[in-house]
Specification:
Nucleotidyltransferase, domain 5; 22% strand; alpha+beta; 7-stranded mixed sheet; 11 helices
Amino acid sequence: MPYESGNEHDPHPAEQPATPGYGPARLRRSRHRRRKSALRWIAWGTLGVALVGGGGVAYAWQHLNGNIKGTDVNAALGDDRPSAQRGGAMNILLLGSDSRAGTHGHYGSGVLGARADTAMVLHVDKTHKKASVVSIPRDTLVERPSCTTQHGGGTVPAAHQAMFNSSYSLGGPACTVKTVEEMSGLRMDHYLEVDFKGFQKLIDELGGVDISTRSAIRDPNSGLSLDAGKHRLKGEDALALVRTRHGVGDGSDLGRIQLQQAFVKALIHRADTVDPLGSPAKSYALADTATKSISADSELASADKLLGLAKDLKGISPGRTTMVTMPVTYDAQDAGRVLPLDKASHRVWTALRHDRPVPKTATHGSVADRTDSPVVSGT
């Protein structure tokens, strides 16, 4: 869910392991059940280690814990935040950063630092059986609040009509969380982030993801070249798909978001087909790659917490997940930027705040809602 290719406006072109305690008998019974979320295979992978690890279990668990990078968002933001959701509903900010670290210039040379070029608010309803996902275009001009710098010791000043993804490059994930909270009035209970390198490795470890395209997609900027039809995308091509913007729609960030949303559903379908107990070694490799690939808030940055979250979300299937893009319109002053449609966006965020489905009519006036994705989520 990260990523995107560059554009002429921006030099910085442009997301798990159930809790322990499952006994062997229950694991055997669960082996034949359909996995219900994209996080769940990570959960089973770590549990698979426990089944066969013997004396190595403690080491393996500690190793997975050591993989995960955490940020203390609560300390950075303090108490001046929206109230938490009631009744068990939760909000998780999913970030895809465009860090080129470790890619040897393959995704753009002369690009320093990172930006959160994919942002999705995942709202899990109080039953933890349904979810709504709201994508926030990286090119949205927003009121960016003042933040502390990512490593402390300084302040990022507030800004009028700043690029949404600048909050990450200037203030790190905590500043992005604060920006989203002030835009939406929703408290983010957690955030999860994945970058270029981690995303590609994760898809390769999973064995690829199946998608179908209604029409051919060609984007020399991302390197994607797909004919119409069925495809299994390995890591590099999957990354190219979710980075693509010039080969779809109007060539803006909005078409790329549609590709990302379709890919997320395809990824859930693919994860559902994996039998993590069939190969404990493969399952551990998946869990190891996953935990190396992500960053999280400090309250979530441990293998057991991710296991607990994965277990919590296991009932959410693609059919129970609604995906929309925050309602926006083109900026009359700059065609490469978009502005929030205030009333429509307010309806979207209010629905989530009250733990209700997003009204279909809320996005009808949005330019993000004008074209269909050329990708069908799963084959």
